[in-house]
Amino acid sequence: MFVNTPWADSVIDWKAMNLEPTCFTFRSYSFEPQKKRVRFLYEIEFKGKKPLKFTETILLPSVPKAVPKELLYKVLESVHLMLGISYYKLYCPKKVTLPYALTEEQAIFWTTVYKKGLGEFAYRNKLDPRKFAKFPFKRGAGQTGAARLRRVAVDFERKDRGLLGIGGGKDSIVAGELMKKAGKVFDAFLVETERPSFVAVNVIKTMKVGSLTLERRLDPKIFEEHEGAYNGHIPISGVFAFLGLLAAVLYDYRYVIVGNEHSSNFGNVRYKGVEINHQWSKSAEFEGLLQNYTRKFLTPDVTYFSLLRPFYEIRITEMFTHYPQYFGVFTSCNRNFKIHETRLRPGWCCECAKCVFVFTMLSAFLDKKTLVKIFGKDLYADAALKPMFKDLMGEGKMKPFDCVGTFEEMRVAYQNVHVHKIDLGNVFKTVQAPTVPVPFRLLGMNTVLILGYGKEGKATHEFLKARYPELKVGIADQSTDVNYLKKQEEFDFVIKTPGIPKNKVTRPYITATNLFFAERKNFTVGVTGSKGKSTTASLIYHLLRAGGKKARLMGNIGKPMLSSLLEKEEADRETRLRRGDISVLELSSYQLDDIEYSPDIAVVTNLFPEHMTYHDGLENYYHAKSRIVSFAKSGDFFVYNPHLAQLKQWQTRAKKIPFTTKLPLRDSEIPLLGEHNRDNVRAAVTVARLLGVSDTAIKKGILTFKALPHRLEEVGTFKKIHFYDDAISTTPESTIMALKALKKVDTIFLGGEDRGYKFDELEKMLRKMKVRNIVLFPETGARMLKSRAGFTVLETRSMESAVRFAYKNTAPGKICLLSCASPSYSLWTNFEEKGEQFQKLVRSLT
């Protein structure tokens, strides 16, 4: 028989019953598309008894479209494992066997899902969740041959539309209305188990959207009496999540969307060293694990997420009250969703914790008459519910095992009604929700702060006004308010400029770079590197234009990316962003630090220490750079400098292509100075060829390309001295490159903001190149040289004094080079200001 009581006196004594479960086996599955069904087979083996066999069937709404076999296998295997939890929990054998091999990472995922998903089940049946079966794996599984293909995610482009899970409660209603308001394309998703879901069907009718339904047919034997079997809660949201992924793959959807809230992250009780959370499969932890599993082992083209993850339950309730058309059709009472109970209308038992919680939440925003009409009675007036209210407010033994929110928001709602004074605390604030894809992250927000209001911030402002006109937008910039960072606390959400480190952002945020990638429809080439990214990006753009391609230059150089998304159809055909255009983007480490997309072609010019203060260390800086290829797909390209072994080790799904060594012209014909610039040319040529530009056009483009300002820019010859402006060189490595490129440097200007760089190699190069005269600017100038022997040195804060020194000491026919090996900010706003001042004084003092 079933152990029906949740508080059994002891763990079942299998030996005394001569009934010992030994193994749970995932037998097999069969996919029968023409019959519109999938069947999953399971078996529980016993010592001393015949095995129990189960078959669960999923009925499909129509014959599905073709799916790559390797992806179909992966998804069906995963659904097989997830559905099995309903049968495993009958006896919880300590061993499971599988018909296919898992990697260690996959096995850990499934062991976690069973252990935490069955947490409440274990608590009620006095079982130790730590002793549930661990999923087996084979070391090296999937590393070679056909097996390897089964363990590598498959790209499978889906339509930009979503499946929204509808259960009949207020959360999925709010999610649907937010999606409709934002113009997002979606259909309702419904899983019917043994009976029609009339509540959900009525909600879908009220929402006026299309729907897709899967029917789940559990094996009838699961409802029979089995000697010694356990009974209890399973992570049903996890089951629906995997069925949603199956539906998205079979029927061409990009997103599987649910309405789970931040409040679901909070557990009920600790037991056997494990936090027991009735809502674990609704939590951000499960969502993050599932997203990672899907991206790595299924496909990166389908994403499961909760649209309402940034919000507490009480704030979602407030949103719900703006849609009174649902008051008569929704219900959150769990008794409406029991398998063998059919209700034609929504009902509220007015006895369970879920009813009490939802009643309290709604009471903070609705008048008593409306509230009583929804529930049929005033739950505050029911003295028998007083202990339940105390449990929900944290004054009882434990948080009830129901899908309810936190103690804090319960108290806030209750006080609003009974004390008429709310201390909002944190429950109306939003929380960071990285599992929400970028295109959906602003939905439900009321206020947004633009943090940093330079060129990009202004473009962001225009974008928000055009796309989210109802948002209240604020601006905070250090140029107008020294305490600008404190302004964040007044807003739901922040869009930060790249120059502000993410550790200074205290509210949920996103970047303009991610907003652009989320909406872009065209092909992108992203260029990064410690140095040379501006030159390389500009040259790629120039070569593409020379080859007749429609291209534009954006990012750190050129126009802000977001502004391109707002250009009207009547804009110039050469600059309009539309499908078919190629966007060439210069991407700094600041922009890459929190990027969530990869360009179609990623280019890395070089890599050496820089921006370590911003990134809090070299390792973080290199990690930020590597993110340019972290989200690549198998059809993307990674064009890299082959001289850097580190780049070869970066993990990416993109095809790796080193810079070409064969150029359509001789090195001596290249107008750019230095070996580092020849590398930049090689990178640009590699990209141009990938995009179909002919060598004839490439050669013409290289010969007509002009160096960018302040990058080994020849200022001119005055008093027989050749002056070069290389103000862009703000690291010792880049200054060494400049010295190698010019070779006849007699005077050099060095020094600037101190970011901890080491200058030993630079000093050796100065001596090797026989540089005689050195100007040292603060702050690094004071420690630039270990010995000044053999050098004529001027320490100064004045560019004018430095230029006069150069005119006085530089030998005729030699070079004076501005290339400071340090950032400019100790004396100048940026390297452009420094270079322009240098050029102006060189000309005026002659």
Would you give an account of this structure?
There is one protein chain. The protein has 846 residues and is of the alpha/beta class. It is 33% helix and 17% strand. Strands 4-1-2-3-7-6-5-8-11 form a nine-stranded mixed β-sheet, sandwiched between helices. A six-stranded parallel β-sheet has the order 17-18-16-19-20-21, covered by helices on one side. Helix 7 (198-207) links the parallel strand 6 and strand 7 (211-217). Helix 17 (533-546) packs across helix 23 and helix 17 (533-546) packs across helix 24. The longest helix is centred in the N-terminal third of the chain and has 16 residues, at 236-251. It is elongated, with a radius of gyration of 32 Å. The protein starts with 19 loop residues before the first strand and ends with a helix. The relative contact order is 0.06. Mean pLDDT is 91; it is low at 1-10, 142-149 and 569-577.
Distance between the termini: 102 Å
What sort of overall outline do the alpha carbons produce when their principal axes are compared?
Answer: elongated
Q: What structural class is derived from the secondary structure elements?
A: alpha/beta
Q: Which ranges are low-confidence, i.e. pLDDT below 50, for 5 or more consecutive residues?
A: 1-10, 142-149, 569-577
The number of helical elements comes to 28
From the alpha carbons, calculate the radius of gyration and give it in angstroms: 32 Å
Count of strand segments = 27
β-sheet strand percentage = 15-25%
**What fraction, in percent, of the residue positions are helical?**
25-40%
pLDDT averaged residue by residue: 91
Strand order of the largest sheet: 4-1-2-3-7-6-5-8-11
What composes the largest sheet? 9 strands, mixed
